[in-house]
Design a protein that fits this description.
heterodimer; A: 210 residues; mainly alpha; B: 107 residues
């Protein structure tokens, strides 16, 4: 298959594009279900241990988490801009917007690692391990921190995958394989990045704010 | 907020404004987290999060312009999430505490 044509099993390029977009939304739906399970666990845990969850939030790194929220929101904007710029044939500006998105994703991960480092120094580890839990023995506190590490860790894995995806897509835009007449691959990569943003939009208030 | 559209998609200025709106909503959440809202704190924070999510979904992800089949896939996923969360809430709300076992009187 060449990039200008469609795959042999599709009757037209338009049909292939439709299948790619549809497939992406089915995939995003499955990802949503994956995270919904963790949100359900959080809800059940918080209903059973409201005090412990509120205490857990007071030990969260609110400033770093909030900066990360702004970083992801700006990155979501820049990836949406990259799609729109490429649609208008402004390839160089689209690549620049993609590079900004990748840079912001790396900043997000760096801040996330800094957060984890602070928690480990405080004696907070997944599974209720660490001296923090000897000092703070509220039932449910270990559950809060386990859910925090699982949810934010799984999210961080998705950020890593998103960065690889955006990196590969940027290369294909540079090579001219993705262009104004055929940009659904970039659009799909952007959709994945927006999903990462959507998940964080809900993780942030639950684990850092209230 | 719906940015002005060109023939094919949202305007660049509209996307930038949407980004600014999202940052504004995030700043609102951050500011409210320092106020003593009591039991209202979490619902308010989640309401603002839902506003941000809908903005991302409809402006950045262009949900409104999806094909009917893709919308069906998204609706099926949302239905499954609603079922999962609904049944979880029902379980938590109606669960009774297990009775304590009788004290062991044999010695």
């Amino acid at each position: 298959m060449t990039d200008a044509a469609h795959a042999a099993h599709f009757e037209s390029a338009a049909r292939q594009e439709h299948a790619a977009r549809f497939g992406m939304w089915v995939f995003l739906g499955s990802e949503l279900l994956l995270f919904a399970g963790l949100f359900a666990l959080y809800g059940a845990g918080r209903a059973a241990n409201p005090g412990a969850f509120r205490e857990g939030i007071t030990h969260a790194t609110k400033t770093l988490g909030s900066i990360n929220t702004a970083v992801l929101l700006v990155s979501s904007t820049s990836v949406a801009l990259s799609v729109e710029l490429l649609r208008r044939g402004r390839q160089k500006q689209s690549i620049a917007a993609l590079c900004v998105t990748i840079l912001l994703g790396i900043v997000f991960l760096a801040l996330k690692l800094t957060e984890y480092g602070e928690h480990f120094r405080e004696g907070i580890s997944p599974g209720g391990a660490g001296y923090f839990f000897a000092l703070h023995q509220a039932p449910g506190l270990a559950l809060f921190w386990s859910l925090y590490f699982i949810s934010t860790g799984l999210h961080a894995v998705h950020v890593c995958v998103g960065l690889v995806l955006l990196g590969l897509t940027t290369r294909r835009v540079l090579q001219g394989h993705i262009h104004s007449a055929r940009f659904y691959t970039l659009h799909n990569a952007a959709l994945y990045w927006h999903l990462i943003d959507l998940v964080w939009i809900f993780l942030w208030p639950l684990y850092y704010l209230s | 907020m719906t940015p002005a559209r060109s023939a094919n998609g949202p305007s660049l200025g509209g996307l930038v404004l949407t980004g600014a709106l999202l940052l504004g909503l995030a700043a609102l959440s951050y500011g409210l987290s320092f106020m003593q809202l009591g039991a209202l704190g979490l619902p308010v924070a989640l309401l603002i999060a839902a506003c941000k999510a809908l903005t991302v979904l409809f402006v950045f992800m262009d949900f409104g312009a999806l094909s009917a089949s893709a919308k069906l896939a998204a609706a099926a996923a949302l239905l499954m999430v609603a079922l999962l969360l609904g049944l979880m809430i029902t379980d938590v709300a109606t669960r009774e505490r297990a009775p304590l076992p009788p004290p062991n009187t044999s010695s």
